[in-house]
Every structure is written in structure tokens, then in C-alpha cells.
């Protein structure tokens, strides 16, 4: 018997329930990945993620080859390709991970129907992409948690499944056609500081970070912008080259306040997944608090361009936006304050910011990106939706010596720590010599506009 395993956002061999189940039920397995042009048409295959994905596919193929198998890679509409492969090898079952986006729901529905016509059954596995399945825990009277803390409390009481080992051997039937995995070199327009993709690189990253004391120090150091002390596992979790469930197990085995704080962040990831699974429309529509007055491209073109290019005149915001362009990644604290700045200080529609992030982030993810943007914009799950982060206060707190700003904004490299976050307070001749812009808007002015629009004044 033959089974197909459709890989999606789970590009690994370890702790992979669909592959594990397929190998138990069939003699031969087709490990399949489909490059769907629909994702390209929707603008979701940004160069940074395409390059990272190329690494992931090569690594997966190499790991399968070491086990006697290979990755079957096809290009085309995903449902058509899966059905064609299932029909060609006479598969009785197709195994895959459950997804949470509207796209994933549609894909699953159509696969279920159309696979039936070629005599194959679809088996969808939960808790592959997340540590705990969306919907596994719910509050009384609702299909999901809309507030993080009660979710965390409940999530922490659940027992996660034990991580599964990688298979020793994978036998792929003869004659199933596929393409060679693409190379990263063929992708243009990527950020220069992009990390390597793949399960090998992801596991290595986690091991090195924990071994070097990163996890133990996480609670104290995770918000230090210049220290760059977080795990940087997000792209690996986004593509599923490391398993969220296994990462939680690893952290709990290590124990201590650092590991606990790290697990809490992984819980945020599950939290957002269970929100979007229940409300897929929240990817582009306001989740809780509606705001129809945002400024858009037509009213705020210059402000938006200054934000995107990192020349708003607020050093911490500009440093973060330049890091994003250079690395395809940004620190969580920096994401929070740049998102708050765009939506609440410039009062620009969160969707414009979310789109820009998706164009550049190597971990760019409909679930985490959109719901974090909504959190920052005060339309989502934040229980204090009208709070505004003051970028200067944030900068002094999380980059007290200005090292993060100096790294990314060379114009300010020689400004001392006392003024680096407020260069507008330097004497005029010094300021003119810097070649650094004045603030696009005063903080007080931005705050008044936001409060007025929200009817809070
Ligand atoms: P660590 O601090 O080491 O945390 C470990 C893991 O926990 C992360 O890799 C991530 O998977 C998860 N995590 C941490 N914080 C969050 C969070 N707030 N929400 C959900 N998961 C979290 N994360 C993405 O993976 N993709 C995105 O597209 C994305 N967009 C964001 C947009 C905005 C406006 C904001 C405020 C946050 C966004 N995040 C996103 C969440 C977070 O910023 C990143 O996951 C984190 O910075 C990645 O760095 P790290 O791996 O070193 O995180």
C-alpha cells in the first residue's frame, strides 16, 4: 500500500505526526511538497521567505535521501497536484497537518472532496504546526480564547504529546515524477543578512542558543534590543522545521524562569493560531474593536514612506525598520513599537504595516503577523486597546545606551547616549551636520489625533 504525506508548514522529519502515521499504515510513502502559484499570485511568497523555503526543501530532501527516500516536489495548484500524485501511485491515504488560515481551510475542504474521486482518503493531523491543537481548550460559551492570560493558564495545564523520533527509513514508490528542489541562489531581492533555512539549521540554532545560556537568560534579557538575546527561532517555527511541541518539551526539561518565560512566548503563538482558526477573517478584518477612520496611502503617503524606509526622525523606529530590511527579521519589542508608531502615532491603517512586514519578514506569517498587528493597533486581543507606546520612553528603557540605534542608524553613530534617542534636542548646527531627518510628527500631535479619532478626548 502507498500513502502520500503532504508537507506544508511542517518541513521536518522529527516529531512529524502525519509522516509517522503514514509510515505505520503503508509500505511506501510519497513525501510531497507543492509549490502553488496561487501563493505567488496572492503576493505571499516574498523573496526572503522564498529563499528560506528553498533551503528548507533542500534540507528535507537530503534528510529523506539519507533514509533511502526523496522529496517529491511539484509545481501547480495544490489540490490538482496532490490528486494527480495520489492517483499515479494508487495511494489509499493522504496525510497532512491541519492549518488555520482561510486558505488552509479551503485547501482541506477541496482535498477531502477531490481525493474521494481518486479513491484516497484525507487524514488531517492536529497539533503538528502548533504545540496544542487550536480548539483543544475553550472557555465556557465560546469557541476560542480572545484574551491571552486565561488561555495561558489553561494551556499550561494541558499535557502535550511526546515528541516523535525521525523515521529510520522511508521507501518511496518508483516512478513518481517530481522536480529538483529550487536553490536559494535563484531568488533575487533578498535581505543580505538572511539566516540559513532547514531542519538541520533550526535544530542547530535551538541547541546552540540553549547551550550558550540563551534560554536560561531569556527572562532577563529578551527585551534588550542591542543584546539580541532571543532565540531567533521564528522562521524555523514558521516553516515548521522545528516542532513547537518539541521545543516546549525541551524548554520544560531545562526548566527555570528563563525557560518558563520562553514557553510563554511559544504559548502566544498557539494563542494566535486558535484565534485565527476560529475567526479566519481576522487576518485582514478588525477582530474586536472596529476602527474605520485610519489614514491610508492617499492621506498619509509621505509618512508611510518615511516609516517603511526608516527615516521618521525617531531613531528607535528607524533602527528597527532598517533592521527589518537588512535582515528580514526584527526584534519583538521593535515590532511592537514600530507597529504602535505607525498605527497610533501616525494613525495609519494596520493593514498597510502588516503588508510591509509580510513583504520582508522571513518569519512573515498570516497568523502571528496579522494578530500581533491587530494587538498593537488596538483592534485585536489587547485588553487595553487605546494604550500608546511612546517610542522615546521605550527607546530609553530597552536601548539605554543607544547601541541598537548606533548599529542601524550610522548617521547617529557619534551621538552620545544622553541625546541619541532625541536628536531633535541637539543644538541646531550639530543637528544639521548629522543628515538625519526631523520627526515626521510631534508625539503630542500624534497622540491628540489618535485619541480624537477614537473618541477618547
Ligand atoms: P523568541 O522571543 O525567542 O520567542 C520564541 C518563539 O515564540 C518565537 O520564535 C515565536 O514563534 C513565538 N513568539 C514570540 N513572541 C510571539 C508573539 N508575540 N506572537 C506569536 N508568537 C510569538 N512572529 C512570527 O513568527 N511571524 C510574524 O509574522 C510576526 N509578526 C509580528 C508582527 C508584530 C507587529 C509583532 C508585534 C510581533 C510579530 N511576531 C511575529 C511575533 C514576534 O515578534 C516574533 O515571533 C519574534 O520576535 C521572533 O523572534 P524570536 O524567534 O527570537 O522570538
Automatic annotation (TrEMBL):
Required cofactor(s): FAD
Keywords: Chromophore, FAD, Flavoprotein, Lyase
Top-level EC class as recorded in UniProt: lyase
EC number(s) per entry: 4.1.99.3
Name of the protein this chain belongs to: Deoxyribodipyrimidine photo-lyase
Pfam families membership: DNA_photolyase, FAD_binding_7
UniProt-annotated stretches for the region Disordered: 173-204
InterPro entries: Crypto/Photolyase_FAD-like_sf, Crypto/Photolyase_N_sf, Cryptochr/Photolyase_FAD-bd, Cryptochrome/DNA_photolyase_1, DNA_photolyase_1_CS_C, DNA_photolyase_N, Rossmann-like_a/b/a_fold
Lineage of producing organism: Bacteria, Bacillati, Actinomycetota, Actinomycetes, Kitasatosporales
Annotated SUPFAM superfamilies: Cryptochrome/photolyase FAD-binding domain (SSF48173), Cryptochrome/photolyase, N-terminal domain (SSF52425)
UniProt entry tagged with the keyword Transmembrane: no
An example molecular function term from Gene Ontology annotations: deoxyribodipyrimidine photo-lyase activity
Keyword DNA-binding in annotation: no
Transmembrane regions listed in the UniProt entry: none
Boundaries of every Photolyase/cryptochrome alpha/beta domain copy: 1-132
Assigned protein family: Belongs to the DNA photolyase family.
Amino acid at each position: 500500500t502507498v500513502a502520500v504525506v503532504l508537507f506544508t508548514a511542517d518541513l521536518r522529519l522529527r516529531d512529524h505526526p502525519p509522516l509517522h502515521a503514514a509510515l505505520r499504515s503503508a509500505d511506501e510513502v510519497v513525501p510531497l511538497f507543492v509549490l502553488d502559484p496561487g501563493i505567488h499570485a496572492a503576493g505571499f511568497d516574498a523573496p526572503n521567505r522564498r529563499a528560506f523555503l528553498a533551503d528548507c526543501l533542500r534540507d528535507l530532501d537530503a534528510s529523506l535521501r539519507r533514509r533511502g527516500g526523496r522529496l517529491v516536489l511539484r509545481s501547480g495548484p495544490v489540490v490538482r497536484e496532490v490528486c494527480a500524485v495520489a492517483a499515479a501511485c494508487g495511494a489509499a491515504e493522504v496525510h497532512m497537518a491541519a492549518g488555520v488560515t482561510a486558505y488552509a481551510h479551503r485547501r482541506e475542504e477541496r482535498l477531502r472532496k477531490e481525493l474521494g474521486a481518486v479513491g484516497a482518503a484525507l487524514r488531517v493531523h492536529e497539533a503538528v504546526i502548533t504545540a496544542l491543537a487550536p480548539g483543544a481548550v475553550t472557555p465556557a460559551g465560546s469557541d476560542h480564547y480572545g484574551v491571552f492570560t486565561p488561555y495561558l493558564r489553561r494551556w499550561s495545564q494541558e499535557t502535550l504529546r511526546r515528541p516523535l523520533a525521525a523515521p529510520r527509513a522511508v521507501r518511496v514508490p518508483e516512478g513518481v515524477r517530481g522536480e529538483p528542489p529550487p536553490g536559494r541562489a535563484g531568488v533575487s531581492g533578498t535581505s543580505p543578512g538572511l539566516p540559513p533555512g532547514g531542519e538541520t539549521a533550526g535544530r542547530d540554532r535551538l541547541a546552540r542558543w540553549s547551550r550558550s545560556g540563551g534560554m536560561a537568560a531569556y527572562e532577563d534579557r529578551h527585551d534588550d534590543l542591542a543584546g539580541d538575546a532571543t532565540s531567533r527561532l521564528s522562521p524555523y517555527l514558521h516553516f515548521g522545521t522545528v516542532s513547537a511541541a518539541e521545543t516546549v518539551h525541551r524548554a520544560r526539561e531545562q526548566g527555570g524562569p528563563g525557560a518558563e518565560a520562553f514557553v510563554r512566548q511559544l504559548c502566544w503563538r498557539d494563542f494566535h493560531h486558535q484565534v485565527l482558526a476560529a475567526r479566519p477573517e481576522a487576518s485582514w478584518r478588525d477582530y474586536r474593536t472596529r476602527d474605520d477612520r485610519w489614514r491610508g496611502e492617499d492621506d498619509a503617503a509621505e509618512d508611510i514612506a518615511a516609516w517603511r524606509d526608516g527615516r521618521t526622525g525617531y531613531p528607535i523606529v528607524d533602527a528597527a525598520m532598517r533592521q527589518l530590511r537588512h535582515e528580514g527579521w526584527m526584534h519583538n519589542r521593535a515590532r511592537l513599537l514600530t507597529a504602535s508608531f505607525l498605527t497610533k502615532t501616525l494613525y495609519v491603517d494596520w493593514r498597510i504595516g502588516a503588508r510591509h512586514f509580510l513583504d520582508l519578514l522571513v518569519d512573515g506569517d498570516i497568523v502571528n503577523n496579522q494578530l500581533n498587528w491587530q494587538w498593537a493597533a488596538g483592534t485585536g486581543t489587547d485588553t487595553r486597546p487605546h494604550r500608546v507606546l511612546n517610542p522615546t520612553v521605550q527607546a530609553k528603557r530597552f536601548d539605554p545606551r543607544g547601541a541598537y540605534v548606533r548599529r542601524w542608524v550610522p548617521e547617529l553613530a557619534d551621538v552620545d547616549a544622553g541625546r541619541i534617542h532625541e536628536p531633535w534636542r541637539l543644538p541646531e548646527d550639530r543637528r544639521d551636520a548629522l543628515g538625519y531627518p526631523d520627526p515626521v510628527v510631534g508625539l503630542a500631535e500624534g497622540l491628540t489625533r489618535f485619541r480624537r479619532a477614537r473618541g477618547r478626548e
